[in-house]
Amino acid sequence: VTPREPFDLAVIGAGPAGIMAALTASRRLRTLLTFTAAPAADPQPRLETVPASTLGLLIDIGAHPARLGIDRLSTTRHLAWAQADPQTLHGRAVAHIEHGALVAELFAIAQRTSNLTLRLESCLPVMHDGQWHGDGWRATTLVDATGRAMAFTQKRLQAPKPWVARPFWVRGRQVPDPSLRIASLPFGYAFRLGAPGLDMLWIAGRGTILAQSLPAIGRSIVAAGAGWLLEGFPTLESAQRGRAYPASVQWARTSSTAAVGDAFLARDILSSQGIASGICDAMYAACAHHEPDRTLWQQRQHAERGSHLRSLAHLIGDCRFRSCRVWAEYGRFIGQNVPRSSGDAVALRQGRIIRMPPGITAGGAPLPIALHEPGPGPQA
Ligand SMILES: Cc1cc2nc3c(=O)[nH]c(=O)nc-3n(C[C@H](O)[C@H](O)[C@H](O)COP(=O)(O)OP(=O)(O)OC[C@H]3O[C@@H](n4cnc5c(N)ncnc54)[C@H](O)[C@@H]3O)c2cc1C
Fold this sequence. Notes:
The protein has 380 residues and is α+β, with helices and mostly antiparallel strands. 26% of the residues lie in helices and 31% in strands. It has 8 helices and 21 strands. α1 packs parallel to α6 and α7 packs antiparallel against α8. It is globular. 45% of the residues are buried. The C terminus is likely disordered. Bound molecules: flavin-adenine dinucleotide (FAD). The site of flavin-adenine dinucleotide (FAD) has 34 residues, from α1, β2, β3 and α6.
């Protein structure tokens, strides 16, 4: 029998959360990161917002803003959520990052990191004799970072009729206003944001509604008073468009291992918090190798989920179309699952997870980033 290479920790899945978990753990532990395919250029762009604090953290580990396609930070958002007329809000700075560029940059950093082994592997490891066994390796601890695939989850919970988001974009021209603009609609919401040479519009809602003809969707947006969002954008039929992504919240109910990022809690994309929170999760998970840190980490995860569900409930309650069927049904699902207690707050201090003194509430931002203020970055 060929001996298996031993690792302290194996991370499965090389998205932003998995790579950050592996990078953080490799400072102290012999770490393995497995991936099913190396990052490759995706012709379909996916612009996402991250708080400037998260960008700072990425720069600290060696990422370069130019390679992430960032030439400025944005502090302005235009929202028509609770009311029909768009309001302009000035808040904390966010960067607009192309998801593929972020993963490619993090992956390149992981490849240059000593004490971190990267392995292309399509099979999932199995547990026996108290260890995780993969193809030629074994590890004491395993972190599930497989995103919405939630590969180690026996049970997941999601809205009975999940929402998706369809992307439309135009490349290669000056973007008149790159700031985030968002409008609620009777059947969901639409938002627009830009980066150098890329103007992107997302339309989110239930799949059946978004399967309507594009002119009909465009007309519904205008009829809902959100025509301002489409100003300067080509018609939906003439813009480039791509596959829809899942957009509504989903979480792991029972999992055979520790999960981070979307594998633990795939946040509703309205929150614009997936990357910052996934990276934060990852940093905690990498420090939760031993008891009692693991128990505190679980408490933190519970609090994070509660905080996100409460934020969503708040957001749906604020939406001017909250009594429309799709919103009311989603709101009911969220309301049924909001935990009663927020749990104890924890923080990361010098590589250890600590319990915060009573009176400090657990969780991140009280309301989602996209519509309100960015939540705190990782408290490292
Ligand atoms: C349309 C859209 C807009 C969004 N906008 C924002 C935004 O503005 N701001 C924000 O912060 N977040 C946003 N998000 C959310 C954000 O993209 C995610 O929260 C984040 O990418 C999650 O990172 P992750 O590493 O947990 O998962 P992923 O990025 O999904 O990575 C998971 C990785 O695991 C791999 N994998 C899957 N199964 C296996 C397996 N069996 N074995 C090995 N590997 C496996 C996958 O190939 C992938 O590489 C948005 C998401 C979408 C869809």
